[in-house]
Amino acid sequence: MKAEFYQILSRQVEALLSSEDDLIAGMANFSALINDNLENLNWAGFYILKNDQLVLGPFQGKVACTRIPLGKGVCGTAAANNDTIRVADVHQFDGHIACDSASNSEIVIPVRQDNRIIAVLDIDSPMLDRFDQDDQIGLELLVKQFEKCLFG
């Protein structure tokens, strides 16, 4: 069921971004698509890697942390490790950065161009354990579609 849902979203990403070459515009519409289609979210957006730190990019949600050092919090750790991190309870994540106290679970997926990280997609939920393995696989598929559309 979730696999089909994410396949449909992947086609929507392709339709939305296949003729887009501006990273910020693509990130803005991608985060809006995620926010509009996934349930139980309170934040969806990007942090862009600049000078060894993550800087807030386009997002949907409440005011957010502006800068995150590499290796700090879920976003910084995902970027430093070059890997997706799925956290069932952010309050149990050592070094969690609480930008929104309503967030209880989180998934962060690296965005790559030419095999190097340029950003991370960060999605938060007020629910504990909101993201499962199927969500991770589906969201990684969407990020790959995003990369394909914007970077070729």
UniProtKB/TrEMBL annotation:
One of its GO terms (cellular component) is cytosol. Pfam families: GAF_2 (PF13185). Transmembrane segments: none annotated. InterPro entries: FRMsr_CS, GAF, GAF-like_dom_sf, Phosphatase_reg/MetRdx. Residues 37-145 form the GAF domain. GO terms for molecular function: L-methionine-(R)-S-oxide reductase activity. Gene3D superfamilies: 3.30.450.40. Belongs to the free Met sulfoxide reductase family. This is GAF domain-containing protein. It comes from Shewanella gaetbuli.
